[in-house]
Amino acid sequence: xxxxxxxxxxxxxxxxxxxxxxxxxxxxxxxxxxxxxxxxxxxxxxxxxxxxxxxxxxxxxxxxxxxxxxxxxxxxxxxxxxxxxxxxxxxxxxxxxxxxxxxxxxxxxxxxxxxxxxxxxxxxxxxxxxxxxxxxxxxxxxxxxxxxxxxxxxxxxxxxxxxxxxxxxxxxxxxxxxxxxxxxxxxxxxxxxxxxxxxxxxxxxxxxxxxxxxxxxxxxxxxxxxxxxxxxxxxxxxxxxxxxxxxxxxxxxxxxxxxxxxxxxxxxxxxxxxxxxxxxxxxxxxxxxxx
Length: 291
Description:
This protein is of the alpha+beta class. The model has no long low-confidence stretch (mean pLDDT 94). The termini are far apart. Among the domains are: 78 residues, 2-Layer Sandwich (Ribosomal Protein S8, Chain: A, domain 1), CATH 3.30.1370; 111 residues, Hypothetical protein, domain 2 (Endonuclease III, domain 1, Orthogonal Bundle), CATH 1.10.340. It has 15 helices and five strands. The protein is globular and about 50 Å long. Strands 1-5-4-3-2 form a five-stranded antiparallel beta sheet.
């Protein structure tokens, strides 16, 4: 095991900063497994009186510890964001430790985003569990429940009907196979700016603005990413900024434009107020395996 401790400069809500990054919380900290360029690795992040502590295992341990500061949000400085908007400024004042972490794991983040395309959260979680059961391996280290992300080579070479059993219809399965065949190219996007990485991802058939945003907010920690096309986000933003119950993506983008390059930060702050009012029946999750 290798370890590193970093001092905390300014407010840091570590739990809320780490929650979006596709790891998992346990009694002893937050865990992330990764297939890094240096090899398989596992990282545990916890907080002590001395600061943020990272413990890592496997061949990828050094790679993960090199990114401890960015993953835990210490490289993000929320104080750079200033606004005169009364609603957003008050939320920003009340949530000074809400930061954006960055994993540098582009392909892993993209796989999660693809599983969430045009389905409920329950359906997406079911598909992700299926992928892990089929294409994962145990992660190094003492956490016996932790597993590495699905391996790109296995995804690329698997026929569609295997994905059907994982609750993935042909459209999402085809997109997964397509990006898995280009996993090395996709991983190299960690070195690109968010705008260049977005353009590169969108050249893949089946990767739209929503999927790119959902990927880069995790892999690049970009506080300007907006999930255009999301069923809830547009309504939530419009509701909290205007008082209206419903809105469109176009209205959301217009409202968020003055906050660039922190539009995603504003959306995350607004989310602390809760969802928009709910009307009508909820979308029913589908069981793809029975179709």
